[in-house]
Amino acid sequence: MTAEPPVPATSNTAGEPAQRRRRDAAETRQLLLDAARQRFARDGYAATTVRDIADDAGVNVALISRYFTSKEGLFEACLRAAGDELRRTTGQTPADRVPEAIARHIADLGAAGLSSQLSLLLRSSGDAGADEIRRGVLVRSSEQLAAARGWRPGEPDSEQLLLRAQMALAAGIGVAVLRSSIRLEPLSSATEQDLVGPLRDLVDALLPPR
Amino acid sequence: MTAEPPVPATSNTAGEPAQRRRRDAAETRQLLLDAARQRFARDGYAATTVRDIADDAGVNVALISRYFTSKEGLFEACLRAAGDELRRTTGQTPADRVPEAIARHIADLGAAGLSSQLSLLLRSSGDAGADEIRRGVLVRSSEQLAAARGWRPGEPDSEQLLLRAQMALAAGIGVAVLRSSIRLEPLSSATEQDLVGPLRDLVDALLPPR
Amino acid sequence: MTAEPPVPATSNTAGEPAQRRRRDAAETRQLLLDAARQRFARDGYAATTVRDIADDAGVNVALISRYFTSKEGLFEACLRAAGDELRRTTGQTPADRVPEAIARHIADLGAAGLSSQLSLLLRSSGDAGADEIRRGVLVRSSEQLAAARGWRPGEPDSEQLLLRAQMALAAGIGVAVLRSSIRLEPLSSATEQDLVGPLRDLVDALLPPR
Amino acid sequence: MTAEPPVPATSNTAGEPAQRRRRDAAETRQLLLDAARQRFARDGYAATTVRDIADDAGVNVALISRYFTSKEGLFEACLRAAGDELRRTTGQTPADRVPEAIARHIADLGAAGLSSQLSLLLRSSGDAGADEIRRGVLVRSSEQLAAARGWRPGEPDSEQLLLRAQMALAAGIGVAVLRSSIRLEPLSSATEQDLVGPLRDLVDALLPPR
DNA sequence: TATGAATGAGAATTCATTCAT
DNA sequence: GATGAATGAATTCTCATTCAT
Asked: Does one domain contain both C67 and C84?
């Protein structure tokens, strides 16, 4: 519906005949990846057709097979990308700025779609490979989150802290989904400013700063 | 093929002959509803086939059309049932027992599947009718949750409080999904005892008891 | 092209509205099997589409999946049927009538399609399961053929005799294909009468009667 | 991807630098032709993809279009080549050596693939042009075979003799296919020595030397 | 009421072929 | 001459739904 129209790399200022055929493999791949991430996050795996994705990206359907082997392969690539993005947020943030970082992540509903990256992590394709990737991403992120608040593997109460970190992650993801997929009001139209306070309370309550 | 139908929720108290139960419209309906709720919650709407559901319920596929008109109709019925259940939890609970109630709800991974009721609320069918029902359920639940902590429509800061209630709800749903669908460890095997403490911290932080 | 029009079981004498829906599972299965055998024999596995077969049979495509799981499954069922038919010819024939039996088999270009059964044995689907079935059919048939001329497993010259039986079988199949698929003239329009003499010479030369 | 191209049929006598061979239209053409003949003979027309052939030949797919216009065109070229080869065998052989020539032809399972040339003649592409070529090849070959045993067009019994020649040809082709495509044992691992005796019996029985 | 046969729409994937470089 | 990106036309299979019994 509100799909971003495919913007050709070469700016198409004049009213030239809508030249298809970009002939840039890397860019085509990325266009597909972006379109897929949004569709998968918004509609779920099964409800998304490869044709939807290809149309959003403005490229031919067959290129999905070419670049990602299959719909599954494309989904896994999306998960990996979302994992990288999430790791960047939870990993490179000083302990006391974590809530802000999460808030920023959640709030970003833009085309870049950090929020949709989060929602994506709840979507299942039924494929074992994808499930494994997703669990890996979530485990690593929750460990980074816990580590930011003093968690060390093997220590006493280590398990407890990790559990709380996973709940904080779950909360963040839940908020992202209710905002971007379900569009629950007033949550859906809350700004980053609106979110950061409650999120700070939430994170600090689960993972008290030392 | 003729998979043994799962024992219906309503306990079969009387000493009736073991395999009666045929030709009972109400029971058939309930069997389908129970099977559908679990499938939809676990696998999502699009990934669930009506044949899966009918097989789980031990009844013929065509009866789904008969009793619920369509797959959409069955899904909406599931949402309504989940809404009723959720309303019972968030509505009939005194303010200071809300975290315990949520914890109980989330922890219940049994066949009855309170946890799956929560997960269900994140599942989308792409159908506008179902979306509306879901939003209704979530809005009402968050309002009840907020009301338990003193929210009244129209008052100053009313919006703020509702937003926080929705975030608490989102957190609960997020935890339910990570437990039941994603099976993230150690969250997935945490007991109700393990969950209630962190959840109390979380809810109290978002919605401070007055 | 020259596909036998699907004859409904219930004779359709009057000009009734071309009633689809036969509702007879066994018959539907057989209709598909017959249509498939002819198509596969004539055009080969890969060149035959399931839609062709279903149209020839006058039934819906989806029923191929229902009754035979897949195109592969249907092909294997055809091979098995061809094997049964062939075994009947080479197995239940007294030694000195073998050439006549083969001639009759090859000559039968009718709808029943004994000739197409033979051609089928040369068609490959690329599927390992089908290849195994085919080899089994051919081995058994050549053993029966050899046995009719005195072959016994393990005896001296046993291998030699089996080899000759396989060559006789190969000759029969080759003739069937050149007649029915390639339509090479004058071979293609030769009658059973025309074929039986040369075939007798051929078989007797390879497998001298004792 | 860049699979080592099979050594071209034409022996590379001179001591040229090992990996020249790029940019030689004639050689590229031949590489494609050799690869195609083997694939088509082994897997059939429809089951063979142009990409398979190009990969086997170690050249780019698009060159098939360039040199042979289309997949059909390549197939027809293969048929023509097989016809030339076959004509050489059946045409330039004195009457009493025909069985040996056929045996040699059938026995040759090497990369050059005389046997695969024979199998190829049974493969159909569904294209009328190819069918015509194939029939032409087979008719001419059977006429040559018959002529070696005294056949002259128009003479009495001329038709009879031609029919018998076609059956001998069919037998040869049948044996080739059962050996190379079906891999029926013990026929498949029989040597030229094993084959020549039975083949002599077969040919002499069908086409008695005068 | 219940069942299984039948159907048509739609989805993923493969593939020959055409272009732009 | 050669390459690899792109395309559109199939093709197989799945699935919700409808009918006849």
From this structure: no
Smallest Cα distance from D127 to chain C, Å: 11
**What Å value separates CA D53 and C1' E13?**
20
Number of domains in chain D: 1
- Which pLDDT score, from 0 to 100, does residue D5 have? 40
Amino acid at B184: L
Pair C124, C102 in one domain: yes
* A8 φψ region: left (φ > 0), alpha (ψ -120 to 50), beta (else): beta
In chain B, the percentage of residues whose pLDDT exceeds 90 is: 31
* Distance (Å, whole) CA A48 – CA A88: 27
Q: For chain D, which residues score pLDDT lower than 70? A: 1-23, 91, 109-113, 210
E13 C1' closest Cα residue: A65
Q: What is the pLDDT of residue B113?
A: 63
Other residues' Cβ atoms within 10 Å of the Cβ of residue C132: 12
For residues C83 and C163, membership in a common domain is answered with yes
Type and span of the H or E element at D117: helix D114-120
Distance CA C41, CA C117 (A): 7
CATH of the domain at C59: 1.10.10.60
From the CA of C5 to the C1' of E13: give the distance in Å: 32
* AA letter at A143: E
Please report whether residue C16 resides in a domain.
Answer: no
Q: What is the pLDDT of residue A18?
A: 42
Q: CATH number for the domain including C132?
A: 1.10.357
- Residue finishing a domain among C12, C38, C71: C71
Tokens of A82: 């979302």
Q: How far is CA A154 from the centre of its chain?
A: 30
Instruction: Say what the pLDDT of residue A125 is.
Output: 84
Q: What is the pLDDT of residues C87-146, one digit of tens each?
A: 877 777 777 787 778 877 777 765 556 778 888 888 888 888 898 899 999 998 888 888
Inspect the interface and report whether the beta carbons of C182 and D124 lie closer than 8 Å: yes
| Dist CA D36 CA D57 (whole Å) | 8
In a domain, C131, yes or no: yes
Q: Does C183 touch chain D (CB under 8 A)?
A: yes
Measure CB to CB from residue C186 to each of D125, D163, D181 and give the nearest one. Answer: D163
Same domain, C84 and C147: yes
Give the mutation candidate from C118, C167, C199, C206 for the D interface (greatest D CB count, under 10 A). Answer: C167
- Residue C194 included in any domain: yes
What digits encode the pLDDT tens for the residues C133-144? Answer: 999 999 988 888
Give the domain extent around D124.
Answer: 78-206
CB of C48 within 7 Å of some strand F atom: yes
